[in-house]
Amino acid sequence: MHRHKFFFGTLRGRLILSVAAIHAVMMSLFITDLTLRQRVMLLDRQVEEAEALTQSLSTSAAGWIAAADVSGIQEIVETQRRYPELIFAMVVDNQGLVLAHTDPSRMGKYLLDLPHEVRQTMLSKSPALVDVAVPAMLGSRHVGWARVGIGQKAYGEKLTEIIRNGVLYAVATILIGSTIAWSMGRRITRRLYAVQETIDAVRTGNRQARSPIAGTDEAAVMAKEFNAMLDALAKQDEKLRNSEARYRCIVDTATEGIWVVGPDLKTVFVNARITEILGYGGDEIMGRPMMDFLFDEDKADHLRKMQNRQMGISEHYERRFRHKNGDTVWMLTSATPIIDEENGFNGAFSMLTDITERRQAEEELRRYKDQLEQTVLQRTAELLLARDAAEAASKAKSLFLANMSHELRTPLNAILGFSQMMRRDPNASETQRENLNIINRSGEHLLSLINDVLEIAKIEAGRLQLEVAPFDLGSMVRDVTEMMRLRAQEKGLQLLLDQTSEFPRYIKSDEARLRQVLVNLVSNAIKFTAQGVIIIRLGVKNNTRKHLLMEVEDTGPGIKPEDQKRLFKPFVQLAESGMQKGTGLGLAISRQFVELMGGHIGVESAVGKGSLFRVELPVELAALADILKAEKRGEVVALAPGQPAYRILIAEDQHENQLLLSRLMTAIGLEVKIAENGAQCVKLFQDWHPDLIWMDRRMPVMDGMEATRRIRLLADGQAVKIVAVTASAFQEQRQETLDAGMDDFVRKPYRFEEIYGCLARQLGVRYLYRSELPEEAVPDVLLTAGMLAVLTPELRHELGVALESLDDKRISAAIQQIGKVDLQLSRTLSRLTDSFDYPAILGALADTNRRFPQ
């Protein structure tokens, strides 16, 4: 195998193989072409012979066919047998009847494949059979057909002979060409071997060896170029020796130490600076590993770094070395691997800088630092005690605020919710509506006061968070102006929005806080101005970034300079306005909001001339496409048709809030069940599988957070939607509820549209709105005996007993059962119970029982 490899790897072998391959290809192409040409020629000759025989037979048999002399026709056909390649010959009449055939058994049979036209026709043309049919004509009259088939015996023999001769010629040509190539290759390689001998001599160290080949051919030219290359290398060696001497001089005088180890990690070079730093002579270091000059505790790390070097990794680090006298020498080391041309490890090169003095100075600094840290730790411990005390007070304050928020907001939720629901009753009189409006306004005012106190508490605790989003500034300002204009008109004041103001309409900021600032400023201006006008102005100030300017100017009594200094402090009310109601928190909250948004609020005022409050804060511009405000579509009256019958579970311990939320759900036809604590909620979820759970955060037995976590661990617990309903004052508790596994967050006291909006977000429900329906489509609630007739006697009885007992839970349960029978009837009953029109239902039940007795 090696001999074959050696032969085929030489120039001579490749030359012979190339010549043989070229001859083989050329002769193959020649034989193939010759064979194809001969095949075509032989086939054409075969066709000519078949046509001639058929034409002769047709001419000879025409008269006999006309005479209907079958024996004469057969004699003519028999004469065709003398042709050696004949397969068959026949004569047929116009109807295809075989009159004569070289195979007598075919006589008297009919042919089906005669030509359709009376002319000479080639029925088959292949080496195996050439089949020709020629019409037999007697004058111009067609009397029959002559048909002859010739085979390929002679054709195949001739073609085989041609191929055989071609192969012999090809083999002979290949042999002759290979012999010539062998001779030429031998002459060429003999001179190349002479060059190889010179190369081997140079490799063994004979730098004076030169190739003796003379002449003008390629081998001689190559030998001359090789000799010239050796001369050039000799000159480069001389330059290299001189350069190495200069390099050695430079390296030995360098201020940094240089240490080189070989692939076995033993020293192959150090400069004079290394011997000076460590106190060893160069011969004491050469041939020894660097590890011999390290302390024992550093050797393991040194071996790891040498492994990194073998993996091609460069490093910079500090290393301790042992001086010859035993002292410690610190050196800053920059080490890099030496990689050969084949990407193999060939040693390592290190640059070392003596940093012993620096390390000694650092050690001294470290001692001073430790002493300072000890002092700082002592002071820090004292501060931590003070901080813990402050945090405990803050925690107690936050706990108090959370409890107060829950205790105040929970009854407010029922007050505002039921007053709003009763205002919707179409049967309420104007006096009742006026009383309900007073209740609602008073509740909203109380909620505003609570919110002010809580906002100040959150600001002081550092728990207030901005909610920056794009919004329509122009729309917000117009809304506030329209909202406050009625209050101004009640006092005979003009409230104007300066229409010449130029300001960006769409910005990114905290809309709710900015609205509250503007409302506080305008409200104060109305409160303290007896006559005249109040003007709102907006503008833009371009500094390094855009700043929004917002001014509220009034014609009130003005503010004394000494009062202006304490105007923005919490719970401060000026003496002149002591008769005014309020908490004294509005301006304090406004200042905190503005400063939290990175802005500034100030006042310019003179006694008797009015006041001008100016807000300046940075804003970011927004585009119209960024404004994503939900369209207010009015009062929800029912679910849109074609939706599933959703199940709603209410987890709430307060009866009033249970009743309010339950009526909001049943009013639009949803099926409701109520749990009074978290444990009941988990049990009802397992038994009833609701689609959404309204989850109160605070409940006895088990709170809403723990109930949510347990539900999420149950089967189908990830599918149900859970919404936190809480009276918490702190926004960060929203994230706590989401982290516990809840899907959304609604804060008490809630508005009806907040509840219905949350339902739409979580379940995708669609509503019918009163504003979208024609007036006749929302008639007064009418209940007839015929409508109740669809109910079973037992269900009618249960409804009547529930109404007479005034038990809200029992009434809701009965209406839910009716919803399974007639959804529209259950909605009608829900609207009547929401307006407490129990007599109408009881009257309709009595009428039904009379007209449809049990």
Euclidean distance between termini CA atoms? 112 Å
Mean pLDDT equals 80
Unreliable stretches, pLDDT < 50, 5 or more residues?
A: 1-6, 775-781
Rg result: 56 Å
Percent in helix: 40-55%
Please explain how this structure is put together.
The protein has 854 residues and is of the alpha+beta class. The chain is 52% helix and 19% strand. A 5-stranded antiparallel beta sheet has the order 2-1-5-4-3. Strands 7-6-10-9-8 form a 5-stranded antiparallel beta sheet. Strands 12-14-15-17-16 form a 5-stranded mixed beta sheet. The longest helix is centred in the middle third of the chain and has 68 residues, at 356-423. It is flat. The model is unreliable at 1-6 and 775-781 (pLDDT under 50).
